[in-house]
């Protein structure tokens, strides 16, 4: 891939929001070993290098199997706080000024870790990041779609005392065979509670799952959405509704959703007028944080400065920030683009 130092610098400096990052997917091997030692837990790998070498996936499920095992080192409120702090330090270095982070409570409650332990640790890490970096954040509670509707309802119930600190519910884990409609009633209940709704759809699953996310779940934002491009009527609908897509290029590459970044659909999404954004998904597993994703796209040569500015602009438009906050961030972004001069 060709290197574009000017474009790399430009994209790295762009003020941006990150809208698709699983906090459990930011657990770096070094921190995994550290937490394993702190909690007296064994890891079936001899070294950080051996663990990293196991991160070779040919589809989503390969990754999920390792990701859920890795999360086992997370036990205490302090672990979740430290996990979040490490992510926010990296995000701040990438000029992320706002992040909306996913967490998977069932991954932890099913191991006997209390919901309150998980969420209180994450909220403490979020408050620390705002004080330290001025980086604001929101929390999105994801239901694991390979589990059943009752389990999702029980999770929503456990979240009730914390609703003031949760912006939205989401849907993640094994997509194929677990269509969005399976969770229509849980999402309706979440809506009644005043929560926004997002869902992974069209990562590996067919365009029909994207339609279901729109029509059965009433999502405010779509996670991935790649396979929407197979259905022209769906593309028209997404463009008309200015639906935000949280696209994750390096994740798509590592999970073989695309064969190469040159073949990545994000350029086509922009040309179709879709509100695409760039995100890292599970950066500790996929080889890069948000700026690595921007730079990897820059290296393909298919997108120009104006496109990257649009992608960053979309990240604020697609966020759950207030209109006033979005306007303020967009003004900072425009000042940065103007200050950077012509390409
Ligand atoms: N959980 C963590 N990362 C995920 C992804 N990319 N797709 C579905 N579930 C996930
Ligand atoms: Zn994801």
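^ Assign residues to that structure.
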């Amino acid at each position: 891939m060709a290197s574009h130092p000017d474009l790399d610098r430009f994209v790295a400096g762009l003020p941006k929001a990150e809208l698709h990052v699983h906090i459990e997917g930011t657990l770096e091997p070094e921190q995994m070993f550290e937490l394993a030692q702190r909690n007296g837990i064994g890891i079936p790998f001899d070294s950080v290098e051996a663990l990293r070498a196991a991160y070779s996936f040919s589809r989503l499920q390969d990754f999920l199997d390792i990701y859920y095992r890795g999360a086992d080192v997370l036990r205490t409120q302090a672990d979740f706080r430290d996990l979040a702090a490490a992510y926010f330090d990296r995000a701040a270095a990438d000029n992320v000024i706002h992040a909306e982070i996913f967490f998977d409570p069932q991954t932890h409650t099913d191991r006997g870790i209390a919901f309150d332990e998980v969420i209180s640790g994450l909220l403490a890490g979020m408050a620390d990041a705002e004080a330290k970096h001025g980086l604001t954040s929101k929390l999105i509670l994801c239901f694991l779609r390979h589990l059943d509707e009752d389990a999702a309802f029980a999770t929503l119930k456990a979240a009730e005392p914390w609703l003031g600190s949760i912006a939205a519910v989401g849907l993640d884990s094994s997509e194929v065979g677990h269509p969005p409609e399976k969770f229509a009633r849980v999402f309706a209940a979440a809506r009644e509670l005043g929560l926004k709704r997002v869902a992974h759809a069209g990562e590996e699953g067919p365009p029909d799952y994207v339609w279901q996310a729109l029509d059965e779940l009433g999502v405010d934002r779509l996670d991935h959405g790649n396979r929407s491009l197979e259905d022209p009527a769906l593309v028209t609908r997404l463009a008309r509704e200015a639906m935000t897509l949280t696209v994750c290029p390096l994740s798509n590459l590592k999970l073989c959703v695309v064969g190469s970044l040159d073949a990545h659909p994000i350029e086509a999404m922009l040309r179709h007028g879709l509100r695409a954004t760039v995100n890292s998904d599970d950066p500790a597993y996929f080889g890069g944080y948000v700026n690595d994703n921007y730079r990897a796209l820059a290296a393909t040569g298919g997108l120009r400065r104006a496109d990257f500015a649009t992608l960053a602009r979309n990240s604020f438009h697609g966020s759950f920030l207030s209109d006033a906050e979005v306007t303020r961030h967009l003004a900072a972004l425009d000042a940065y683009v103007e200050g950077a001069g012509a390409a």
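Residues 5-340 form a domain with the TIM Barrel fold (CATH 3.20.20.140).
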